[in-house]
Every structure is written in C-alpha cells, then in structure tokens.
Amino acid sequence: MPTFVNPTACNACAGEHQGPLCVYICPNDLMALDLESNKGFNQEPQLCSECYACVKLCPQEAIHVRGYSDFIPLGASVQPRRVENGLTWTVTFRNGKVLEFTYPSRSTPVGSSEPYKDFTEDPAGDLKGQGLAGESHWLGVDKLPSLAASN
Amino acid sequence: MALPVTETVECDILIIGGGMSGCGAAFESKFWGSDLKVVIAEKAVIERSGATGEGLSAINCYMGQRYGWNTPEDFVQYVVNDMMGLAREDLVYDVGRHVDSSVHLLEEWGLPIWKKEDGTYERIGRWQIPIHGESIKPVTAEPARKAVGQENIYERVSVTHLLTDANDPERIAGAVGFGVRENKLYLFKAKAVIITTGGASNVFRPRSVNEGIGRTWYSVFATGSAYGLMIPVGTEMTQMEHRFVPTRFKDGYGPVGMWFQYFHARVTNALGEDYTVTRDDELDKYPPYGRAVPTPTPLRNHQMFLDIRDGKGPMYMRTEEAMQKLAGGDPAKMDQVRQEAWEDFLDMTIAQALTWASQNIEPEVTPSEVNLAEPYIMGSHSGEAGAWVSGPEDLAPPEYFWGYNKMTTIRGLFAAGDGVGAAPHKFSSGSFTEGRLAAKAAVNFLRDNPAAPSVSDAQVRQLHESIWAPLETFDRHQGASTTEGINPNYITAAQALVRLQKIMDEYAGGTSAWYTTNGPTLERGIRLIEMLREDLKQLGARNRHELLRCWEVVHRTWVGEAHMRHLLHRQETRWPGYYYRADYPDLDDANWRVFVNSRYDAANDQWSLMTRPYINLVK
Ligand SMILES: Cc1cc2nc3c(=O)[nH]c(=O)nc-3n(C[C@H](O)[C@H](O)[C@H](O)COP(=O)(O)OP(=O)(O)OC[C@H]3O[C@@H](n4cnc5c(N)ncnc54)[C@H](O)[C@@H]3O)c2cc1C
Ligand code: SF4
Ligand code: SF4
Questions:
Q1: For residues A46 and B210, is the Cβ–Cβ distance under 8 A?
Q2: How far apart are CA B27 and CA B19, in angstroms?
Q3: Nearest residue on chain A to B72, alpha-carbon basis
Q4: Which of A74, A107, A113 sits opposite B143 (nearest CB)?
Q5: Quick one: which H or E segment has residue B387?
Q6: Min distance B405 CA to chain A CA atoms (Å)
Q7: A15 at interface of B, judged by CB pairs closer than 8 A
Q8: What is the C-alpha separation between B428 and B113, in angstroms, rounded?
Q9: Which atom of ligand 3 is nearest to the CA of A53?
Q10: Residues B535, B496 contacting (CB under 8 angstroms)
Q11: Out of B108, B220, B355, whose CB is closest to A72?
C-alpha cells in the first residue's frame, strides 16, 4: 500500500547527517526528495511493498500509508511508533475502532553484536572440515551430524 | 557513447546481494579468510533490504537438535515429500544439520525468540519457531557489516551482469553494475563470486494490476536477479519449472501458517465444507506423496483449487472459530490470542493488518477470505528453482559433486538462498546458513586457486554500454512523439513488465488461465517471450531510477523464459495445485522423478535442456 508524506510534518530530515532518512532506507528506491518543495515523496507508489521501513525511520512521523486503491476501502490506518527496543502500533479501523499493540523488536542494543566472540575454530586447521564458524559452541549438539555416521 | 566514470573494485570474494544469505556469506567468509578482501554489492541498504526487510514473525527452518525435536534426516524426508519427490537430499541435509547454529547466533545478536516457561523455544509447527521478528534484518546485517567493514560495502549499486574470464567462459571473473544514486558504472573484479540476489516476484501477472501491482506475496524487491545474472553466462540451472502458489489471506497476502499450525484454524467454503475432508479421496491419485503426512503443500492447494473451480467459494479462514476455541471464554486468554494474531501480521505483512482494519474485520468475530495467489519462482521458501550446485564433500554422490560446496557449474561462482535450486524450505535461517556454507567453500576455493582471472576490457566496455543504453535510447528518441510514453522506438520498463506478466499469465498457467497450460501453448509463449527479450534492447529510461527498473525487468524476463522452457520439457503434472499440464495431467514417477536442468549458450543464443538423476540418500 503506497506511502504518502504529510507535507506539514516533513522537514526534509534537517540535521540528519545521512540526509532524508526515507530516501536512505527505502529498499525499492521509491522515496525521493522533491527539490522544489523540499519534501519527501513516493515516486512510484505502485511498487511500494508497504514494508514500512521508511515509516518506522521517519523522525517526524510524517509518512503514512493509504491502502491500495485496488482493494482497500478508505478510512483505516496502521501507524507504528518506535519505543525502546520495540514498536507500538496504532491500528485504526474504518469504523473508528482503535487497537494498540506493543511488541519487542530486539533484545540487545543496536551496535552491540560481536562477531566471532568466543569462537574456538582454527581458521586454517579447520578450513577443510564441515563445521561452520562457532559451531563447536553454537550448534547445540556435540557433533555435527553426517549421513555416513547415520547410515 | 559518452559513459559516466567507472569505479573499479578488486577483491577476493564478491558477494552480490546483502539479504539473508548475503549477510551469512559476509559473516562466515571473514572468519575463515580474515586476510581476504570481501566486498558486498547491494542495490539497497542491507539493514532493510531483501525479503526479510519488512520483518518476520517466525523462523521457519529450525531443527531443535539440542532438544531432540528433529534430525536432519527427518527434515530431508519432510522436504522431499512436500516437493512431491524431488529435492537434492545432500543440499537439504546440509542446511538441516547446520541451521540451528545460525538461529542460536541470531538470538545472541538480538533476535527475540518466544520462550516457554522452562526457557526452551516455543514452537508453531514441527520446524517453525515464533519470533518477535520486526528487526530480524537489522539484527542480521549488523555483524555482517562489522565483519567485512563499512569500506567494503557498496550499497545502492545494482549489479546487472556477471563477468567470466576472458580466456575461460566457465571461470567467473567478477560483475558489472551501476550506481543507482550516482552517475557511476562499476567493475568488480573478483576471484570468487557468491550470488545471493534473491527470488522472483512479479514475473506472473499479479491479481491486482493497477496501484496494487506491488502488492505481491514474495517481496516486490525480489526481481529474479539471482537467475537473471546466472543464466546469461551459461550457469546450469535446475527445477526452473517449479513454482510456488501461496494460499494467503486475500489481497493483503497475510501468512496462513500460524493460523493452520498454531491456532489450528480451518478453511471452509461457502457451504461450510472443509476441503481437506470432502476432497480427501483426491490424495489417492498421487501416490506415494498424497498420503504422506503432512499433505504436500501443492496437494492442499489442489484440493482448495477444486472447490474454487467448482464455484464453492469464497473460501474462509475460520479465525473466529479458532480464536474462540483457544480462549475458551476467558477474556484474558482472548486478549493474548488477539495480541498474537495481530503480531503475526505487524511483524511481517503489515498490509494484512491494514486490510483487516479497512474492512472492519475483527478476527475473533469475523472470518477472513483466503485465496490462491499468482505463481512465484524462487528457491528458498516453498520453491526450488535455482542453480545446480555441487554438494558437500561428505554427503554428495559423484553425480552431485565437483569440488566445492554450493559452487555452480561456473568455476568460482557460488550461490546461496533463493539462488540454489532443488534445496527448498530453507527460509530465512536456512538461507543465512547456506550463505555461510557457500562462503566457507569459497575461501577453500581461493586457497586452492589464488590466481586472479583475466578480465577483457573490451567485454567490460560492451557491457557498460549496454547498461547505459536505455538512458541513451530515451534521450535519442524522445522527440519522435508528443506523448512521452508512446513512442515507436522504445518501451519503458513498466510497459515491458506488463508484457512479461501477460505472457506468463496467459501462456504459462497463471491465475487467469487457472494455472493450466500445455505444450503448444508454452511453445507459443516462448516465441512471444523471445520477441520480448529482443525488444528489451530498446528499453528507454528517463533517469537512473528507471534504469534500475529496466535491469530488473531484464532479469525477470530471463526467469520467465527459463520457467516456460522447463515447463515444456517436463512432460507430466508433478505439482497439481501449482500448475497443470493439460496434455500430461498425471504425475509420472516412472519417467519424471528426475531434475530438469537447462543451460543457455550465449554464443549461439540456444538453450539446452536435460535431466539429472534424483538420488535417494536418506533411507
Ligand atoms: C512475505 C514473506 C514471508 C516470509 N516469511 C518467512 C518466515 O516467516 N520465516 C522465515 O524463516 N522465512 C520467511 N520468508 C523467507 C525468507 O525471507 C527468504 O527465504 C530469505 O530472505 C531468502 O534469502 P536470500 O538471501 O536468498 O534473499 P533476500 O533476503 O531477499 O536477499 C536478496 C538481496 O539481494 C539484493 N539484490 C537483489 N538484486 C540485486 C542486484 N541486481 N544487485 C544488487 N543487489 C541485489 C536485494 O536487495 C536483497 O538484499 C518469507 C519471505 C517473504 C517474502
Ligand atoms: S524521513 Fe520523514 S522527515 Fe525525513 S524527508 Fe522523509 S518524510 Fe521528510
Ligand atoms: S513502505 Fe517500504 S517500499 Fe514503500 S516507500 Fe516505504 S520503504 Fe519504500
């Protein structure tokens, strides 16, 4: 369902070092900045997958979704708001009923992952074997199964 | 022709695509080859790119070996049955035995997995575990980004063609592409390449054709690039005739797995009948798969299809029945079930939540329509189209082995995720795992083959000219018509896409043809798609955004053509419910329990099709 931008809320991400964040994140190269009005807009709404990546990232909560005209009756909305390590969703029905849900998104702070922490494999000695990096710890069983062993 | 500047990037391993399998490949390659230069080329930004960018509500491939839930052998048996007898057991086993380690790592990096009170994972079905997966992609991308280093990630670069060695067309040498956001051409020279560019949506005409053309089930970002890159250089492909027709909530494409497996909901027709009961006899027509437990997905589709064809629709998922039963009159329990029901969509297919809200559907009160969607071609979910790759050293029989795990028939070219054929049901976790396996094998390949391939400047120049041609074509011809979109000298990417989808829909058994085709219809479709492929040389693009769309439709067209040629070759109906060959309506195990493979020869513009044996490994 195509996104649309509320022109009064969009400030073109003034102050963001990456520039307009919707333009930065859209996986399908849809969000663009209109140079005349200096506002974000969806340049190809029929290829919007309503993935909400731009909606979740917009610092001004300026991006909304209007359901596809092909099959979505007017009047409803689904809008997320970032809370710590999660999202709160406000679901508004066509008839005005409102539901609110909060779900966690991640259990660790952004940026805290440590690749290869405590991995014990030897990158040279174990290269020819079947084990993947870290599997001696992370596989959860003592031995990597093989068909030869199971037959 | 005046071309923009070329940026040349030399590396040891080039990973094309930074989705689930690309991130797995990036992470793994730098562990085994910390001295190697590993580069990711990605058309978007890896934190939200690919089929999991929107989020997921479940990990669909998990063995639970540590809990004693399943063995990789169990997994092979399940997958082979679901695919009605055809999957590469070595490849499926390989994913199965490793996948748990990937899931545990994703959890360590921050993916919240639902837990029971005793701390073990909650389960949805035999292989599925529920997650709070809205951020699965940023959680996966972070360690990949750290592993290869920011300076080695080329984002907003659309890769258009692979490059083979100037002296050896069966040895990979790199890839070319262009900057989507800057006026730049790219030349990647690499000793090994890992293709992880995802599956193909929008090859068939979708059920919605106006604004809703982007409301596909598989991600609209999945443009068939894995196939569109590999086929033109002569990579042997397998099972390109296979497709997946998802049963999904109508129009919003919300997933049904949680409803069937976790909430135990039924689907009933307008008469209140359950097709799995009334059409039970139908399963006897497809031995031995029909009586396998669980019923193979295509056959469940087939049963529902018969109801729809006989005019017994609409089909309804009885959400109200299931939720009331689960809650048992307890309002607190109902609250929890409602939370879970909405999360299933809000974590993954947000459009479905909006579809419900827009139609005032409260699932505990009102049932929801489900429908059979248009076909999709991919290799990681319930589809098995992709490259024919070597199996692992300790599992693969000689017919399936040529040196390095996940290496295609082009030396040094590896594939993973949607790009690998005959190895379905990997999903997010298995694709990530397969990327890791391909990367480790690529490091091995590099240790054995350290020499850099040679790249022909003339070939690169020619490819770069063809990349840029749509911009030139538009510029040169736009004055020939007062209506920009109607010009005898070019077609736009959007127009070409509609033409591809119409051909596929009508000739290759799309929704309007009731998934049915036959030999002569396919032959006619192939003639038309050959002309489309010629016309794609006259694509016109106003700007780089449209240039991106041009190369996407080129890749999708390769997928469509391969799909039709494979359909034509397989003279049986192997997967009723996905498609029907009216001239060969039966499943024919005696002659066709084999893989259908193909190879395109660019020098002569010829396809060859052949079969490869199915070998049973897990007894
Ligand atoms: C609607 C939906 C629901 C799903 N539900 C689940 C689920 O519940 N559980 C589960 O485990 N799995 C689920 N999956 C499956 C899972 O998402 C896929 O199996 C997995 O993402 C495949 O990984 P991949 O690396 O092959 O492709 P992707 O993850 O799609 O990655 C492909 C990458 O390649 C990039 N790319 C493509 N073309 C080019 C190009 N030409 N140049 C440069 N880069 C390019 C893309 O931008 C993307 O980053 C679901 C998928 C969909 C679409
Ligand atoms: S992210 Fe929001 S504020 Fe920034 S440019 Fe886009 S719409 Fe405007
Ligand atoms: S919802 Fe997704 S596809 Fe649509 S504009 Fe936003 S980021 Fe792009």
A1: yes
A2: 12
A3: A145
A4: A113
A5: strand B386-387
A6: 10
A7: no
A8: 14
A9: 7
A10: yes
A11: B355
Task: Report the alpha-carbon distance of residue B202 to residue B501 in Å, rounded.
Answer: 7
What six digits make up the tokens of B491? 């077609």
Q: Evaluate if pTM is beyond 0.80.
A: yes
- CB-CB contact of A32 with A4 (8 Å): no
DSSP string, A38-69: TEEEES-GGG-----HHHHH-TT--EEE---T
Nearest CA to ligand 3 atom 3: A48
What digits encode the pLDDT tens for the residues B184-213? 999 999 999 999 999 999 999 999 989 999
Token digits for B247? 């049963």
User: What does the block give as tokens for A102?
Assistant: 């909060």
Checking DSSP bridges between strand B237-238 and strand B184-195, what pairing results, if any? unpaired
Give the pLDDT score at A151: 46
Cα B561 to Cα B15: distance, rounded to the nearest angstrom? 26
**Token couple for B36:** 């190697």
On whether any CB of chain A is under 8 Å from the CB of B339, the answer is yes
Taking only Cα atoms into account, the Rg of chain B, rounded to an integer number of angstroms, comes to: 23
Give dist(CA B171, CA B178) in Å, integer: 23
Cβ-Cβ contacts under 8 Å, A22 against chain B: none
Q: Are B40 and B22 in contact (CB under 8 A)?
A: yes
Distance (Å) from the alpha carbon of A20 to chain B's nearest alpha carbon: 13
* Residue B424 to residue B390: CA distance in whole angstroms: 15
CB contact (8 A) between residue A67 and residue B66? no
Q: Which ligand has the minimum distance to the alpha carbon of residue B219?
A: 1
Instruction: Give the model confidence (pLDDT) of B499-557 as tens digits.
Output: 999 999 999 999 999 999 999 999 999 999 999 999 999 999 999 999 999 999 999 99
Chain B CB within 8 Å of residue A90 CB:
no
E-strand stretches of B81-148: 129-133
Q: Does A95 touch chain B (CB under 8 A)?
A: yes
Tokens, residue B118: 């005793």
